[in-house]
Amino acid sequence: MSILDTGKDFRRANALAGILLKYGFGDMIRRLGLAAPMEQAGKLVRQSIDRELLTMPPAERLRRALEEMGPTFVKLGQILATRVDMFPRDWIDEFEKLQDNAPALPYDTLVPLIERALGKPADKVFRDIDPNPLGVASIGQVHRATTLRGEAVVLKIQKPGIRDKIDSDLRLLRHLARLAVDNSAELRRYRPLELVREFERSLARELDFTIEARNADRIRKNLRKLEWVKVPRVYWAWTSPTLSVQELIEGIPARRLDKLDEAGADRPLIARRGAEAAWKMALEDGFFHADPHPGNFLIMPGNRIGMLDYGMVGKLSHARREQMVQIMKSVVMQEADGCAAVLASWSDGQPVKYEALVADVEDVISMYYGVPLADLDVTALLADITGMLRNHNLVLPSDIALLIKAIITLEGFGRLIHPQFDVMSEAEPLIKRMIRARYSPTRLARSLGLKALDAVDRIYAPPAPAGTPKSEGTGIDPRHLERLVARLERSQYRQVQTLLTASGVLCGSLLLGHRVAPVLWDISLPGLLILMSSGVWAAWLLLVARRHLRQWD
Predict the structure, then answer these.
(1) Which residues are catalytic?
(2) Strand pairing partners for 240?
(3) Is the CB of residue 229 less than 8 Å from the CB of residue 222?
(4) Degrees, nearest 5: CA angle 260-264-268
(5) Residues linked to residue 145 through DSSP beta bridges, in sequence order
């Protein structure tokens, strides 16, 4: 059954189509293939287009349309704001303006939800709950409360019926994504099905408040050595998928610069501390706050920083962090191949014109020739790289997209607090430490050892099935390999012997020249003994070498 066969979903689709028409996106409806069936059913809303709206840039019109479509589409726009590889900067700027402006629900309607989540009357846990909300979002509403022990906490309560509304909109989005793939080559390049799946995962995490609480717990443990960062403690005894209870943090909102100055805050220090915490989370821990805008930070006495809202976090595997370090190193060292190799690995299985990609990478990184790491304009660099990805139809991995979005947001936050703030100068020590670790002898030896073991595993793998082309096999006889390895080991052993012999000759000569005691007939006995021993070793090595040469003749 088509999704538009159900009356409720059809009416919702019709309402969304009306909003798109209102903001001048009728062409999008036709490209999705929705116009004809809706017009035939006589359901398509017809209304004149406001000429004033048409004078606005398309990005602003789409942002306003998403706001009018409701909470689900506001959330979708916030996800789109992370896709710097798919949309140009002016579109990202508009998506970032999307905020949850949901009306507050009366407190009385939330009491049954609180008590259902607690499994007991609210007054058995809390001395009082402020009926006036601290904040209202599309999914939850936040109220201040005090526990029976006198602890100040905040309650985040999930709004009633929100899951059903989101499920209905997600059904429509999945249907629209399939229509976009089938009917529009232009929309297909934005990979709508992948975007909707990413959006579904994000919403599923956001609808379970225990996930946000676990995020807060994990980041608090990771940052425990930074005494000037405060992450709210979670009260797990009362936290559930529909109710979150966390420690109340009080301070001056980071965007209130006038209040910060009145309190005597050290704004440059706050900016540096925020960047240090953010870079540590991203590059060292691989688990970071993905929305570091000023609204999620409170400045506490002593220039301490309170971090709030862990609904959007990013995760970077060790391999991903290595790729980011490789890109930065390639830019600084002007190694286009190294950077292009990382970008090509993001092709999602699509063919890549590698030579053209390398040429474009060279053009980009040449603009940063001779720029020290600390002076690198990371925002401009990321914009150049993501623009290049769009030109080559490459897919930016969602975790990297989230990191780039976080870096750009972090730089905006830092410069709001301190106009001379430079996000890369704060990252330089950590990146240099990671590069040193990447190329340390211990790390290289371990990596080579693992590769050698992998090669041996491949060689000793079970024989290929009958009929397998010879070129698909290993092409190496294990017995022959063992002889080669033994010969290589003997060669290395002789090299070490030769070095030791040469060192002995040098050491003995120095001892003789300085007449190091004990001395007999004005000759240093230790030097003489070392020289004689080295001579014997050298003669033996020559004999062995001659014998092996005759074997090879």
Answers:
(1) 291
(2) 243
(3) no
(4) 70
(5) 129, 153
